[in-house]
Amino acid sequence: MTVREVIEKIKKESGASIPDGQTCDILIAGDPDMEVKKIGCTFMATVDVIKKAAAQGVNFLITHEPTWFNGPDRSAWVEKDPVYLENSI
Fold it and tell me: How many Å apart are CA 25 and CA 84, to the nearest integer?
């Protein structure tokens, strides 16, 4: 399955009927057409969590908390920050 197909299956199985773009549940990084080999879940996708997940073969990580520290996951405010640049996906 691809990332896109996994997302669609999760949406279908959950019974959610919220239109795309109406929530902060979005694909933050990566290719929606990439084949999913292993899925991981975490409360917060810290740099360490991402590194550990990758080391375990996880290539689709689902996180509860926003990636860029705000609800809608907008990253424009950190795009010139050296920490963001060092650890960006």
Answer: 21
CA 38/CA 56 separation, integer angstroms: 9
pTM of the model: 0.70
Q: How far apart are CA 43 and CA 81, in angstroms?
A: 24
Instruction: Give burial (CB, 10 Å; 0-12/13-18/19+) of 61.
Output: buried
Rounded to whole angstroms, the Cα distance separating 41 from 28 reads: 14
Per-residue pLDDT reduced to its tens digit, 20-70: 777 777 888 889 999 999 999 999 999 899 999 999 999 999 998 877 666
List, in sequence order, every residue forming a beta bridge with 88; answer none if it has no partner.
none
Report which of 58, 56, 55 is spatially closest to residue 34, judged by C-alpha positions. 58
